[in-house]
Amino acid sequence: MPDSGLFYKEWKQNKALLTMIFLVFMLSNPFTVLNTYISYQGCVANQNEWVGTCVFTINYLNGTYISLFWIWGVVLAVSQLGIERSKGLFDFTLSLPYTRGQIFNTKFLTGGMVIAAPQIFGYVLSVLLLVLLKPEQAVYFHHYSLGMIIVSLLAYSLVMAGGALTGHIFAQLLVSATVTILPFLLMTLPAINLEILLGGTVEFIHGPVPEWVQYLFPVTYVVPNWVEDSPYYLVIPAIMTIIFYIIGYISFVKLSNERNGYFFLWKPLDRPVQVIVIIIGIMGFGYFGFAATESFAGYIFGMAAGAVIGFLISYFAIYKKTKHV
What we know:
The protein is an all-alpha fold. The protein has 2 domains: 4-170 and 224-259; 182-216 and 266-325, no CATH class. The protein is 70% helix and 2% strand. The protein contains 11 helices and 2 strands; from the N terminus they run H-E-H-H-H-E-H-H-H-H-H-H-H. A two-stranded parallel ribbon has the order 1-2. Helix 2 runs antiparallel to helix 6. The radius of gyration is 24 Å and the shape is flat. It comes from Bacillus halotolerans. This is ABC transporter permease. The chain crosses the membrane at residues 16-38, 58-78, 108-132, 144-166, 173-192, 232-252, 273-290, 296-318. InterPro entries: ABC-5_transporter, ABC_transptr_acetoin_YtrC/YtrD.
């Protein structure tokens, strides 16, 4: 169970960022309602000059501030793990008389509460404003407001897991970004290359794909179009959030911090990941070479270039130790 002393340390260390995120999460949703209402009142006041009818409608799919909430989850996770580790402060944290599990859970609970609590409070304030101001419609209001809590927690838990596996900020962000498109890298990219090699069509690429499959891609939630589909699909990011928490917790507890500054804290991951990066480079550049030249020679040239680039990127990223700031 996390200790109050750990919560206090986490607060003192990140209080400016935590306060800012809390206020942004709490005020953005009510501000969206008020801003739309003010625009409506301006339309009514100048109705003789404007063409059309003034309608007080709030469409949460059209340019709302809360669509960027996931970014703050990323920033918070980087601050709690990547920046603390890169500044050399992590050794002090681990030297405190607490278990690694307590330290990780304190960080995760602090981040989770700062993400979820103000959004819930802002949602309640927005509901009260809607009751008071009585718009004709609030399109996707409930779905979007509650869904963004899950999406921002997903982004936070994903980057926290990336930080628990890696030794510096760049590695944390790169691993997290890669995971967001991992289903494409593992399924679609090999299938496209198989099409090129066989000179035909691989049926499962072009066949009907269930709508829920796209929600296995964390990158799907960057664009808020998910709000147009069933709210039950949000079960998928909720489950992924739990999975990433478990990965982060186990990694934080089991992996040694002695490799601080290296890409991965667990050395046995270095070689397999390097091989995977090279293979992805071969397939990716091979596809682009084929698409650019529409010839098999371009495909071979692209594969060769991808192998070299994949090797260089993976070698210098994974095996070169990063110094503390």
